[in-house]
Design a protein that fits this description.
38% helix; Rossmann fold; 254 residues
């Protein structure tokens, strides 16, 4: 545990829901400075297990930005700026970054909200979070707390965040409706949400998406149903866009 991790945890405590055994909360910080709120109880999906290895975390980290333009996605700087614009980020904001993975968006969000702001990056994969911790340290950021937690049961207080992000992770959430409901619960009135994941334009058709969901808990969702799911969770002004295999959705908490 580093002094920086302990200090950032103390800043984030009013936003979090901690288990009774987290007394003091620093005892749940691991050697990477990640607050582990899952322990050994969590049962990952096949896709989540596949991503939670040192090799897959390394491979994803090394290839994600290089391959994005090849498959028609935006280059990462443009994608990160679009997320910041959709969230309406300003200095001092507190942001929840769900399914933060190796921390690429987490770091960019933290740079934009500045030292007075705070970013809580949450993921279930220890291997991804270890890489995220190294990325945060290399960037010299002191306003990021990384949490190992479940997007379907966010360890966050009701209405805690005015900005909620889930970039690149929507397709990995095994119960998307429940995840959206959780993100709505922790979003303050008027809070902005931005998210993305593998998606298709329009309504979509065909049974291969159902097979992926049943076998791997992996979603590939047409944009129109994705927007409706976010609206059912309580977000308004919902809009979508697509770039290559990735769909983007954003809106504002009613």
């Amino acid at each position: 545990m580093t002094p920086t991790a302990s200090s950032t945890l103390r800043r984030a405590l009013p936003l979090l829901k901690l288990p009774p055994e987290a007394d003091p909360p620093e005892r749940l910080l691991n050697e990477n400075g990640v607050l582990d709120l899952l322990g050994a109880r969590f049962a990952p999906t096949p896709t989540q297990r596949m991503l939670d290895t040192r090799f897959t975390a390394w491979f994803y980290d090394r290839t994600r930005d290089a391959l994005a333009p090849v498959v028609g996605m935006q280059r990462f700087p443009e994608e990160a700026q679009a997320v910041a614009d959709r969230l309406g980020l300003v200095s001092g904001d507190a942001v929840l970054d769900v399914a933060c993975g190796h921390g690429n968006f987490t770091v960019e969000l933290a740079r934009r909200v500045g030292p007075q702001g705070l970013v809580v990056g949450l993921d279930i994969a220890s291997s991804m979070l270890a890489r995220a911790a190294r990325r945060v340290a290399r960037a010299g950021l002191t306003n990021v707390l990384l949490v190992r937690g479940d997007a379907l049961a966010l360890p966050v207080r009701d209405g805690a965040f005015a900005k909620v992000n889930c970039s690149g992770g929507l397709h990995q959430l095994p119960d998307l409706e429940r995840a959206f409901a959780e993100m709505a619960r922790v979003a303050a009135p008027g809070a902005r949400f931005a998210g993305s994941g593998f998606a298709e334009s329009g309504e979509g058709s065909g049974g291969w998406r159902g097979w992926l969901h049943r076998r791997l808990a992996l979603h590939v969702i047409p944009l129109a149903p994705l927007a409706r799911s976010l609206e059912r969770a309580g977000f308004g002004g919902v809009a979508t866009a697509a770039a290559g295999p990735v769909g983007y959705v954003w809106g504002r908490r009613a």
